[in-house]
TrEMBL record:
Keyword annotations from UniProtKB, A to Z: Heme, Iron, Membrane, Metal-binding, Monooxygenase, Oxidoreductase, Transmembrane, Transmembrane helix
Protein name: Abscisic acid 8'-hydroxylase 3
Cofactor section: heme
Gene Ontology MF: a single term: iron ion binding
InterPro entries reported for this sequence: Cyt_P450 (IPR001128), Cyt_P450_CS (IPR017972), Cyt_P450_E_grp-I (IPR002401), Cyt_P450_sf (IPR036396)
Family: Belongs to the cytochrome P450 family.
Length: 419
């Protein structure tokens, strides 16, 4: 459990997280305890244990995030909840992001992918892959939530959302001038912008069926609609869940593609990239009662962490796990061993959209562009900040794993000549 109060937080934050968890697993087996970020935690590195927490006994483990982060995203966002409110909203979000619903925006995503690639290739400039992928996934998120949206709103949303993001991993204090304070101000501004958009939508009575319209038309069994705050929290929540995750996955896919130029089977590449990178390395729940699992007691109030990354990197389930091998997906993985989008009640409702936008972008990239990847030599490198950004977003940990050592993976896409 480490030192009192700080537990093993410093060890976790000063090492590659994969090494921290893998060493623990080697020493203590698939289920072990630790103390991080001020809380006692039980870590679970077996598919069965992850299923126990996320699926079979999901009602005994509630989602858990620091309050400061809940305030910033919006406390009514679906991923902070369990029970009726969660399952009703989840159905709504899932149906707005179903393949059927996404069909309507395929052409728009396609046009966005082409114009993004064209702009990155302009003037042989050097770009930061993760940063431009974030811009791309933000725009796709906007399309899925609002359909077509006025450029002035997009600009304002983008500007304020970036300030919120900066404050998300900062020390949560409400003193004017601090990143957290600025983020809370920007978050209120986001609500105002959304209120304006909603007002306009109501006046126009649009027939579009995007996520915003679903949220506006939502009625519970008693006929009660969602408040504007509930709508705003869920719009920001979905945007937040959609952006860094997809941008991280795309950045890793590019790295793997250009490490091995033969890997052009887009779908399998994507699956193997999601396994290798395990964007969401683990998730957190909190035991709502004392729970016994396999002879272990998980005390009420303890955090429980299913470790997706360890499961994805266990040679028992994925032979030679550190080797990028897209062909391993020619055979379906064993049940509950492949969970890049989670599992159970809170599994990612955006997974179809994420796969769609990744496939479209990669398709245009490999068919229309050639690449030169600038590296420090040898294989392409991903900056360490990449290890943590996306999962830290979900989990409320900050991304200090990479700070101070930031390096940029730089891509120069060049348009292929017609031949
Ligand atoms: C490669 C990209 C993505 C990855 C790897 C990913 C991964 C995940 C994972 C692992 C979870 C479960 C977290 C948990 O159990 O605590 C999750 C939840 C969620 N994701 Fe994604 N995600 C991605 C893209 C997206 C996109 C594009 C959207 C929306 C447009 C989205 C929306 C959500 C939402 C709303 C939840 C919360 C669901 C709930 O609590 O019921 N994600 N995601």
């Amino acid at each position: 459990m480490g030192y009192s109060y700080i537990g093993e937080t410093l060890q976790l934050y000063s090492q590659d997280p994969s090494v921290f968890f893998a060493n623990k697993q080697k020493r203590y087996g698939d289920i072990f305890k630790t103390h991080i970020l001020g809380y006692p935690c039980v870590m679970l590195a077996s598919p069965e244990a992850a299923r126990f927490v996320l699926v079979t006994y999901a009602h005994l483990f509630k989602p858990t995030y620091p309050k400061s982060k809940e305030r910033l995203i919006g406390p009514s966002a679906l991923f902070f909840h369990q029970g009726n409110y969660h399952s009703r909203l989840r159905k709504l979000v899932q149906s707005s992001l179903s393949p059927e619903a996404l069909r309507k925006i395929v052409d728009d995503i396609d046009a966005l992918a082409i114009s993004s690639l064209e702009s990155w290739a302009e003037n042989n400039q050097t770009i930061n892959t993760f940063r431009v992928m974030k811009k791309f996934s933000f725009e796709v998120g906007i399309l899925a939530i609002f359909g077509q949206l006025d450029a002035k709103y997009k600009k304002e949303l983008n500007k304020n959302y970036s300030i919120v993001e900066k404050g998300y991993n900062s020390f949560p204090t409400n003193l004017p001038g601090t990143a957290y304070y600025k983020a809370m101000v920007a978050r209120r501004k986001l609500s105002e912008i959304l209120r304006e958009i909603i007002c306009e939508r109501k006046e126009k009575r649009t027939v579009e069926k995007d996520l915003l319209i679903h949220l506006l038309n939502f009625k519970d069994v008693k006929g009660k609609t969602l408040t504007e705050d509930q709508i705003a929290d869920n719009v920001i929540g979905v945007l937040f869940a959609a952006q860094d995750t997809t941008a991280s996955a795309l950045t890793w896919i590019l790295k793997y593609l250009y490490d091995d130029q033969k890997l052009l089977e887009a779908v399998k590449v994507i699956l193997e990239s999601l396994r290798m990178s395990s964007i969401i390395s683990f998730t957190f729940r909190e035991a709502v009662v004392d729970v016994e699992y396999n002879g272990y007691l998980i005390p009420k109030g303890w955090k429980v962490m299913p470790l997706f990354r360890n499961i994805h990197h266990n040679p028992e389930f994925f032979a030679d796990p550190r080797n990028f091998d897209a062909s391993r997906f020619e055979v379906a993985p064993k049940p509950n061993t492949y969970m890049p989008f989670g599992n159970g009640a809170h599994a990612c409702p955006g997974n179809e959209l994420a796969k769609l936008e990744m496939m479209i972008l990669i398709h245009h990239l490999v068919t229309k562009f050639s690449h030169a990847l600038i590296t420090a030599g040898g294989k392409s490198k991903i900056p360490k900040e990449q290890y943590s950004t996306a999962h830290s977003q979900y989990l409320g940990m900050d991304s200090h794993l990479g700070s101070g050592r930031k390096r940029e993976a730089k891509q120069i896409p060049r348009k292929r000549d017609a031949s």
